[in-house]
Every structure is written in structure tokens, then in C-alpha cells.
């Protein structure tokens, strides 16, 4: 299987440079002195999450005739918003398939960017997206199972390497695996001494089990939907799993209480809004298994219902 390269990520960086924010690497001065912590604040992107990088790279790499057909995507939220935002920027139609259980704030934000949203039942995203493709003749922009999407997410790794070249640990939320695949590719090439860890909820720990077994395992939708981290309920594809097998030093799993505590800590101490999926890196950092040395957690997104954030912070 053909994996993406550093050159692919560098080409993506050139393609998206004018369209995305080069997010800051913020020092968390309350962190462990033996493991200085830095926060890569992707919640500050225009759509509130890292997904804008992969979407811009994928759509930007289409031909004009392909873009004219419009785009189709399926997503639990952040990729949906990203594709909708990018489609609006290019002036092309977008049809987005989203599960009915997606937080309202993410559905409304996708509609606000001008996309047509199609709601579907749990586990039906890909099937319904296929039907929409047939109806519209659009081009599919998947949330992670695409080299251009993976390379776009990898631009985060280039920025981490530029801003903190002596980084020793990088903590990345993992679900479908596109983010960890892209960042891992860049970090392995630019900071070869760093360790790259995926982080996922205990209630959706299919990647950790898959890596232990050496093959992808299937967790049911009902099992994965138990976690509060709604953005981490997908499973790796064959493409992303091949990347993760090569690039990750391990996967750290975190509990629901640890995720909530991390959301609260980011809000109170860093003054940063994080959705549960975006806070898992901090939850992993709080475990004793992280080696000493400068550590970066990727705060992947901040799209959370205000009421849910209030419940977590006040809880």
C-alpha cells in the first residue's frame, strides 16, 4: 500500500498556506517540569477544528472540471464543516451526510456554510453518501481515507517541527486515523527522535486493539457511540491503519472521566474551548506513561455544545 511521504505533506502545506491558520503552539506553564507541555491549538481554525487542512488540500487538488461537479462528504461533524467551508470558498455545491446523533452545533454550522445536510441513522454514513453521489454526480471527499486528506492534516506536523524541533512526545487524537497518519509522517521525517502516540477513548479503543493484534478489528457502532468524544467514533481504514502501524509508538486509552477533566482543565487553565475529542491528548498527558521531555498535545477541535461545556466545567 502506498503511504504518503514528507514531500506530499510539503506540497499540501504550499496548497493550503493561504487558506488555513498557522495555529500557535502554546506553552502550558502549569504542566509537569519534567515533561514541558505545549498545546497545538487547532480549535482556532475558522471552522474550529483541524479538518479544514485536509479538506482544502483535497478540494484544492481537484481539477476545475471535477470541482464544478460539487463535492460530497460524510462526517460526524468537523469534516462536514470543513468541506462545507471549503466548498463555499471555491463557490461549488456541497452535500454532507451526517449521523442524526451529531451535536446540533456541528449540524447547524455545516448548514451555515451553505451545504445541503442529509441526516442518516447510526452506521449509515457511507451508504447514504454513496446514494447522494449517484444523485448529484459530485466528487467524494472522505473524512480520512484519502491521501490528499491525510497529507493536509500532516501540515500540523510540519508546524510542530518548525516551532519545537526538540519535541520528544506528540499526542494525537486517533479515530479514523487521518490526523495521526499525517502528523506522524511529518514528525518521523523532521523529528526522528520524537515518539508519536495516538490517543483514543477506552469506550472506542478499536485502534489500540487492532495494533495489538496486527490487524483491523471491528467494534460495533453501539459500542463506539458510548463515548462522549463524538469525533472519535470512527475506525481506521486499510490506508490509515497501514500508516498507524508504521508511525505510532503506541496508543494510549483514556476514560470518560479523564476526558471530562481534560476539557475542564483546558477551559480553566489554558482558557481554551475544547470538545471532548480534542482534549484526549491532555488526558493522556496526565497519565504517568508519557516519557520525559518536551511534549505536544494536539487540541484537534473546539466544537462543543455550550450547554455540554457548561456541564463539564461545572461538574
TrEMBL record:
Molecular function terms from GO: ATP binding; L-serine ammonia-lyase activity; magnesium ion binding; pyridoxal phosphate binding; serine racemase activity; threonine deaminase activity; threonine racemase activity
Reactions catalysed, semicolon-separated, are: L-threonine = 2-oxobutanoate + NH4(+)
- Give EC number(s), comma-separated: 4.3.1.19
UniProt keywords, alphabetically:
Lyase, Pyridoxal phosphate
Which Pfam family, any one, appears in the UniProt record?
PALP
| Residue stretches making up the Tryptophan synthase beta chain-like PALP domain | 17-301
GO biological process: what's one of them? D-serine biosynthetic process
Q: Domain of life here?
A: Bacteria
Enzyme type, top EC level? lyase
Q: Does the keyword Transmembrane apply?
A: no
Which co-factors does it depend on? pyridoxal 5'-phosphate
Q: What does this protein do?
A: Catalyzes the anaerobic formation of alpha-ketobutyrate and ammonia from threonine in a two-step reaction. The first step involved a dehydration of threonine and a production of enamine intermediates (aminocrotonate), which tautomerizes to its imine form (iminobutyrate). Both intermediates are unstable and short-lived. The second step is the nonenzymatic hydrolysis of the enamine/imine intermediates to form 2-ketobutyrate and free ammonia. In the low water environment of the cell, the second step is accelerated by RidA.
Q: Which family does it belong to?
A: Belongs to the serine/threonine dehydratase family.
The protein's name in its UniProt record: threonine ammonia-lyase
Instruction: Please name the source species.
Output: Mycolicibacterium agri
